[in-house]
Design brief:
The protein has one domain. The protein has about 325 residues and is mainly alpha-helical. It has 13 helices and 2 strands, in the order αααααααααββαααα. Helix 2 crosses helix 3 and helix 6 runs parallel beside helix 9. Strands 1-2 form a two-stranded antiparallel ribbon. Bound molecules: zinc ion (2 copies). One zinc ion binds next to loops.
């Protein structure tokens, strides 16, 4: 029980977490400046717009809260069973050692400043790229889409919507994180020895820290801040991620990026921001009567995956039967 409560409070007190209260506070300040300066609202109207009760306490937001809590319980039990970054790092490290023409610490003489700068950038870029790729797969592969649809079923966005995921999507992303960290740490330690370190601010990778301080939480909000066109090729703006949640067909499969927009630019899925004030958010599903019920969010995806796998197996069975009948 104590473990559970510390996991919950840690999300708001640990600067490595997106919803760290310091980042939320800065996001509120950024949003207020935007509403006052860009939207020309009075302070009273800006505050009313920002803390819109019909968004903060909507059915969708209430289910975000529930999923946040229930997923923490699920992951508390499942996380210890998953492969760790240490295990992955150890396997890769031994593999590199077995290659005869590679030598431990071959670049150990490199100035520490360069090693730390390269490692900090590499781990950030690899982490962001793997998030992009897996997010893209989540939209392309029916089995993964059944899970990811839970995130997209949100009809209003608040910072907690980031945790509105099916717990199995959480598992996929924990494994992704372990691989990213394991690969980065083992290869860098093998090449550069013990000089490998991260540039951090309050224990957070400096790039991640800058992104969070710059209002990362507004991506899941109704504050449609848009960047300059040139910047939206490099970093995903809040309005660009809000378009990713739109039900409009022209926004389908756009803006998969977490922090960097360059991946969407390279893979042809970049959509520059638009005015998001009148966007309809969610997924177009005819058969969902209760889109925010825990049954729809937890059980329905599993049933869908079961049906998809059964139809795949059925097709395979028919294919092999036809082949054997030919012979
Ligand atoms: Zn998505
Ligand atoms: Zn989202």
């Amino acid at each position: 029980m104590i473990d559970f409560f510390s996991t919950i409070t840690e999300h708001f007190s640990d600067p490595r977490k997106r919803v760290f209260l310091g980042y939320i506070f800065l996001s509120i300040i950024i949003a207020l400046i935007w509403l006052l300066a860009k939207k020309k609202l009075s302070l009273k109207d800006a505050l009313r717009y920002l803390f819109n009760k019909s968004i903060l306490f909507s059915k969708s937001s209430q289910s975000d809260f529930k999923l946040f809590f229930f997923n923490r319980i699920f992951l508390m039990f499942v996380s210890p069973l998953l492969v760790t970054q240490l295990a992955i790092a150890t396997v890769i490290y031994h593999f590199l050692q077995s290659i005869s023409w590679l030598e431990f610490g071959m670049f150990v003489e490199t100035p520490k400043l360069i090693i730390v700068g390269t490692f900090t950038t590499f781990i950030f870029v690899l982490d962001d790229f793997t998030k992009f790729i897996i997010h893209r797969w989540m939209h392309k592969w029916p089995i993964l889409w059944s899970l990811h649809k839970v995130h997209h079923s949100a009809t209003t966005l608040t910072p907690l919507t980031i945790y509105r995921t099916h717990p199995l999507e959480g598992v996929v992303f924990i494994i992704r994180g372990s691989f990213t960290q394991g690969i980065s740490i083992s290869t860098f330690v093998f090449c550069f020895g013990n000089n490998v370190d991260l540039y951090t601010v309050i224990g957070v990778n400096v790039f991640v820290f800058c992104f969070n301080v710059a209002g990362s939480n507004l991506r899941h909000s109704h504050i449609g801040i848009r960047y300059w066109r040139w910047l939206e090729y490099i970093i995903i703006s809040p309005a660009q991620h809000q378009l990713h949640h739109s039900v409009a067909i022209r926004h389908y499969d756009k803006n998969f990026g977490a922090t960097l927009a360059v991946w969407d630019w390279i893979f042809g899925s970049l959509n520059h921001s638009e005015d998001t004030e009148h966007l309809t958010l969610g997924v177009k599903e005819k058969d969902i009567s209760e889109p925010h019920s825990l049954h729809t969010l937890y059980v329905k995806p599993i049933r869908e995956i079961y049906t998809t796998i059964r139809s795949y197996v059925g097709h395979l069975f028919t294919y092999f039967k036809a082949k054997t009948d030919q012979h």
